[in-house]
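Here is one chain, start to finish.
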Amino acid sequence: MTDIDVAPVAPSVWCGIVRDDAETAAHHAVRHAVFVREQRVFRASDRDAHDIAATTFHVLGRCAGIPAGAVRLFPLDPADPSGDWQGDRLAVLPEFRSRHVGGPLTRFAVATAAAHGGRRMIAHVQVANRVFFRRMGWNELGPPEPYLGLPHVLMDIDLTA
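Its structure:
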């Protein structure tokens, strides 16, 4: 295990790459609660081919030891992890949003992609969350466009800075 695999990133918030079936289940449960049940972005499941790809990292955020958030990331070209990465499925359970779990999850994803040689990370960000990402150093790459049936802004961050 390296320092990037599990790290304290804020008081009582820990983020780490999932290591076992229980953490994987918790990761997917958070995403399901947010994207299927709460936001209704997906009808039955938000899982796709990226979830079974060997190059995808699933991250679980815990607040005071309790699963509170999730994010996944992967290189856009699996054969070349030194290029662009995508971060997506950032989800924080409603009861933990006031605990600021989203920031540590996002920073952990960025640090993980950078540690694996990535040069840039992109994300399709729901319009309501673009200010959050701008405050974390992300750049908007154009106007909002439909993504998964909702307006999103394509954003990026330099991983080499």
